[in-house]
Every structure is written in structure tokens, then in C-alpha cells.
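Propose amino acids for all 227 sites.
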């Protein structure tokens, strides 16, 4: 059941969704209105570029999708499964995400396309950090599935089934975090351009440190209970 989720998961999901919304807004404003984590839109753009016989554009968009896949692959390699579990070294992947974002800043400020790929890899890595926990799908870099799940929950409630308020709260936190990240990203980009991405990079670093401390304390308490 979703009620088994510890509170830190909800806080973390909100902050990670904010990071993704921030990055996506910078990408939309700075990459010729191209999203970073919305692969359905990018796949559509690939189709239109193929129809327009735009070979270079097609290759670039394929590179963005493959970069997202590469980031997800890294998470899958290090986590060995997608279920959320305390004790896993999420901090290592958060640090790696921060490095990807910092690398993206370097290349984007030099008008190099490789920056797009690093930003996409960061989103793919983050989205794969947590896939499922007690039957709840947790995605933080896009909200299409979240809205779909909410609709299913509301429909089930209208049919007379119980409504999982905790699950709905988690989804609403992800949606609000993503939107709020878009707001902050828009203002930051207008003032700092691509250097605005230093903000989500710093957030990932803070999350990595915070999780490491929390994980160490939880492990210590568990050892004491066993004694």
C-alpha cells in the first residue's frame, strides 16, 4: 500500500519534480522550444523532421532520446531494480545528475549541442531513480502518467471504490513541484540564461548530502535495534 511510503519520499519527490520542471523550462526557452524530459513530444518532432527531410534535426532529436535512455540505463545499472528501498546509494546517482547538469551548462554556454544531451541524460537518470513502491508509480520528470493515474483514481471513487488520499497527495506534490519548477526556471532563465541550471545542480548536491546523512542515521538506528 502507498500508506507505507515514508514521508521523506514525498518531500524528495516534490523537490525532484521541481528540479525536472526547472530544467524542462530552461530547455523549452533555450532549445528552440524543445522539451527535455517530454519524450512523447520529442518523438513527435522526430516524425515531423523525417517528413520534412530534415536529416540533421532528426539526428539531434534521436540523440536527445538516446541520452535520456542512457541516463535511465545508468540508474538501472547502479540500483539493480526500480523498487524504492532505504539503504540504496541514491546519493551517488544524485551526484552524477548534478555533474551532468554542470556539464550541460558548460556546453550550452558555448552553444554546443552536447549540452542538450547531458541535460536529457540527467532527466533520464533522475526519472529512473524510483520507478515503483508498493504499487505506486513514481515519476518526477513528466506528469502525463501522474494525471492519468489521478483520473483513474477519481473514476474508481465515482464507482464506489475507496480513494487513497496518501497516493493522491503524492501525485499532487509531484504535479505542483513540476509546475513550480517551471515558474522558477522561467524567471531564472530570463536573468541568467543557461547558467540558471546551476540552481537545479545545487539542489541535487544538497539532496545527495541530505540523503547520505539520513541513510547513515537510519542504518545506525537499525544496528542499535538489532543489538
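Proposal:
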Amino acid at each position: 500500500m502507498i500508506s507505507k511510503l515514508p514521508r521523506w519520499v514525498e518531500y524528495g519527490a516534490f523537490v525532484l519534480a521541481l528540479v525536472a520542471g526547472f530544467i524542462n523550462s530552461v530547455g523549452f526557452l533555450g532549445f528552440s522550444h524543445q522539451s527535455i524530459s517530454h519524450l512523447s513530444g520529442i518523438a513527435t518532432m522526430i516524425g515531423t523532421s523525417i517528413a520534412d527531410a530534415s536529416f540533421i534535426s532528426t539526428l539531434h532529436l534521436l540523440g536527445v532520446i538516446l541520452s535520456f535512455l542512457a541516463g535511465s540505463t545508468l540508474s538501472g545499472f547502479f540500483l539493480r531494480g526500480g523498487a524504492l528501498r532505504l539503504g540504496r546509494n541514491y546519493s551517488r546517482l544524485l551526484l552524477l545528475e548534478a555533474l551532468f547538469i554542470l556539464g550541460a551548462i558548460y556546453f550550452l554556454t558555448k552553444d554546443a549541442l552536447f549540452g542538450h544531451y547531458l541535460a536529457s541524460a540527467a532527466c533520464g537518470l533522475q526519472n529512473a531513480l524510483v520507478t515503483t513502491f508498493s504499487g505506486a508509480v513514481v515519476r518526477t520528470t513528466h506528469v502525463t502518467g501522474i494525471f492519468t493515474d489521478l483520473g483513474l483514481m477519481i473514476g474508481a471513487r465515482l464507482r464506489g471504490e475507496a480513494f487513497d488520499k496518501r497516493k493522491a497527495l503524492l501525485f499532487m506534490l509531484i504535479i505542483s513541484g513540476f509546475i513550480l519548477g517551471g515558474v522558477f526556471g522561467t524567471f531564472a532563465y530570463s536573468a541568467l540564461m543557461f547558467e540558471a541550471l546551476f540552481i537545479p545542480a545545487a539542489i541535487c548536491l544538497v539532496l545527495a548530502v541530505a540523503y547520505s546523512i539520513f541513510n547513515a542515521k537510519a542504518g545506525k538506528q537499525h544496528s542499535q535495534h538489532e543489538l
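The beta strands are 132-133, 136-137. The mean pLDDT is 83.
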